[in-house]
From TrEMBL:
Residues 22-85 form the SAM domain. This is SAM domain-containing protein. The lineage of its organism: Eukaryota, Metazoa, Ecdysozoa, Nematoda, Chromadorea. InterPro entries: SAM, SAM/pointed_sf. Residues 1-23 form the signal peptide. Keywords: Signal. Pfam families: SAM_1. It comes from Gongylonema pulchrum.
Amino acid sequence: LCGFSLFGYSAITFWVVSTVGRCDEVGRWVLSVTGSEDCANTFRNQDIDGQSLLLLVDNAHHNLVTLLGLKLGPVVKIMSALKELSAKSINAS
């Protein structure tokens, strides 16, 4: 999971920026993945949009846990969901 580019970075870039582009959309997506309103609010409060989410993905476990103060459980769920989305977008292309 640390080397996110291995999961089709460019394929998921389009999806994240175009589909989960705004901060409120990222918050809703995080809530749907983690089930945690606190986690979703952290993303909203930090103004994390689709582009920001992609920038956080490099070294994501460290960034999401250390910089945002998230617990490891939701971080693992977020990374797993991004990996799954990437696999779907690669298979669709």
